[in-house]
Amino acid sequence: MRFRGWVFGAVVLTGCSEYGVNSHPGTGDTGVGPIDDTDTVGPMPEAVCGVLPPTVALPMAEALFAGGDSYDPGGMPVSIFEWSFTSIPNGSAVAMPLGNGANRVVVPDKPGEYVAQLIVGTEDGRTSDPCFATLTVTPDPDAVDPVAICSVNPEEVAPPFEDATFIGIDSYDPEGMDIDEYEWSFVSVPDGSSVSMPWGISANRTVTPDVAGDYVGRLIVHTEDGRESEPCFALLTAVPEENLWVEMFWEHTGDDMDLHLLAPGGVPRTGTDCYYGNCTYGGLNWGASGSADNPSLDIDDISGDGPENISIAQPQDGVFTVFVHDFPGSVYNGTNNVTVNIYVDGHLEWTDVRNISVEDSDIYYATIDWPSAVITGM
Questions:
Q1: CA 200/CA 208 separation, integer angstroms
Q2: Where does the pLDDT of residue 29 fall: very low under 50, low under 70, confident under 90, or very high at 90 and above?
Q3: 41, 67, 140, 228: most buried, per Cβ within 10 A?
Q4: Strand, helix or coil at 21?
Q5: DSSP code per residue over 202-225
């Protein structure tokens, strides 16, 4: 696009100022020296600016920022035209061309808004207030959208220690431009999970599920010229590998709930009770020799809303008891809804929600008869 013989009509009229050009932010590198306004008299010049066309589309786009209609009410010639950008789109490398001409041709490189500022001055040192002109740049309307290709590896993991990676590196742009952002997010996670998608723009993200269930990731890719793909979805499933898995989470933060699992014939807060005081990552010796029938509190949460879980790879025979203690060290004034899920051989077999409002209370949820896996609410 070329601009010949075009006269830009008045678009913006601004007021006056009594400071020199170089006192305005963002006006360096113009080749114009400082203006001495110590003896300024009379009305200030008026900066009149605009952009033609006001909207252009990538990739072959250029626009003219025009200030030729600026004037001095006192009749002196306007001899200084100081153009600068006050804002450009993120990632853009465009700079205002140097010089002192009234007009500047700009070739944008990213979609978005380019806001330019013009300050004009006269030979006797008077300067205008700034005038602003906005160029809007849109993606190429004829370009084909990029394609998001996503997966997760592995597709199934055991919580809460096994990782999985959401993969988007095979995404591409049919137009041949680079993919400069991989926008990953979770569409859904299981109730009680505190896992979030790692922040960033990279193609792949690694997560560690904390509760059992389905984690649905979504990928949208963006090209450097502002086009974006349709979403792609990938499903990660977390399945407990232990034969007995008990998990807990609650509604309101700031209320420390503690999960307890009693061994057959167990007594609360002794070596036959698995809880935060003695069972974090193991530590208790239950049943026969070896560790397969020993419990482990894998996650202990204090200040949040969970989750917590206790697992046993191969439970001993007998009746286990699940209860929740509302620890008095952190007080929540009100009722808290506390959920307990019990999984047997990787399958959810029992769930219940209890309303807990009394600090330092023990709320009994269920018994688990092993090896029959009969679960009875209490």
A1: 17
A2: very low
A3: 67
A4: helix
A5: SS-EEE---SSEEEEEEEEEEETT
